[in-house]
Specification:
There is one protein chain. 40% of the residues lie in helices and 19% in strands. The strands form 2 sheets. A 6-stranded parallel beta sheet has the order 2-1-3-4-5-11, sandwiched between helices. Helix 5 links the parallel strand 6 and strand 7. Bound molecules: beta-D-galactofuranose (GZL). Beta-D-galactofuranose binds next to helix 1 and strand 9.
Length: 307
């Protein structure tokens, strides 16, 4: 297919190799880059032939890529759905072509769970909850209003929907927490900076920023410093991911707390690919292990971080 970059570990004939077609969201963040590397390295390691495509965060490009994998008669299709809705038609085409599908990273809202074999990824509601829990603890005993602005991930994506929900459910317990502005920064630094500049212009007294990923938080830090305020001090910042640049900002005191979202799904994905290809049953849901980091913890682990 025209849009398939065809990169990956296709070394020679290897006719008995499993051929995996993977449609990636894009290259929007440090998390995504690490996720792509994990998938490519693990496919090589497992001797799986990987056909890989980058959709530049556009659903129609992912649908085109999946259709091209169906035409190429790959053994298995895996993808990270950029948004939750609009997948049933193309997933039915894969099912009719008898090509099993594995979801990674983000979920779809299809009610027909026969359309994919398993979904491996984080629990984003839990991630939002962890962010909210930290904030509640941070402001325990305080009574004055806490003005919060929120940089949401890609509109319609599972991480954006669920991180917003998890966080909102926790802070709803105390009326002093007020989300005074909430808008998408599309998981990118550039958009995060742009939206934070607008937030700062419209709201003179922001106490907290909750950003759905490190990259938007890092963009927001540039905007906060540009407005003559100290990130991590004048405005407390909570982000999600824990990629290297985010962890550095945490260690430097510009971010206050990071909820980890592991991008290293490659090894488990290849294991699931092999099992599904062999016709073995696999769990419908595989949840990734992940933790949280304070500024002190970031300083300690920074040297050993893989991404
Ligand atoms: C989460 C993943 C999100 C990351 C962002 O699993 O889908 O997309 O949190 C990335 O950094 O862009």
């Amino acid at each position: 297919g025209g849009d398939d970059s065809g990169s990956g570990s296709d070394s020679g004939s290897g006719s008995d190799k499993i051929v995996l077609g993977f449609s990636q969201v894009g290259a929007e963040s440090g998390w995504r880059t690490a996720n792509t590397k994990s998938i490519q390295d693990s496919a090589k390691e497992a001797g799986i032939e990987l056909k890989f495509s980058d959709a530049q965060q556009k659903q129609e490009n992912q649908i085109k890529a999946i259709r091209s994998y169906i035409q190429q008669k790959v053994d298995i299709i895996a993808f990270s759905p950029v948004v939750e809705s609009g997948w049933d038609t193309v997933l039915k085409e894969a099912k009719d072509a008898k090509i099993p599908v594995i979801l990674t990273d983000r979920a779809v809202d299809s009610t027909d769970t026969s359309l994919y074999k398993t979904f491996i990824g984080s629990d984003f509601v839990e991630e939002g909850k962890k962010a909210g829990d930290w904030l509640v603890k941070e402001y325990t005993g305080k009574t004055e209003t806490v003005n919060i602005v929120e940089l949401q991930g890609t509109t319609g994506s599972a991480p954006a929907n669920d991180r917003k929900k998890g966080f909102g459910d926790v802070i709803a317990a105390d009326p002093k927490f007020k989300v005074i502005a909430s808008q998408t920064g599309d998981f990118t630094r550039a958009k995060g900076k742009e939206v934070m500049e607008a937030f700062l212009k419209a709201n003179p007294d922001i106490d907290v920023l909750y950003a759905h990923n490190d990259d938007m938080g890092l963009g927001a830090i540039e905007a906060i410093e540009g407005a003559g305020k100290k990130p991590g001090v004048d405005i407390k910042i909570i982000t999600v991911d824990a990629v290297k640049d985010g962890m550095q900002a945490l260690a430097d005191g510009k971010i206050n707390y990071i909820v980890e979202c592991s991008p290293l799904l490659g090894p488990q994905l290849m294991d699931l690919v092999e099992k599904v290809h062999a016709g073995e049953t696999v769990p419908a849901r595989v949840v990734t292990e992940e933790t949280t980091f304070t500024q002190e913890q970031a300083k300690a682990v920074l040297p050993s971080r893989q991404y």
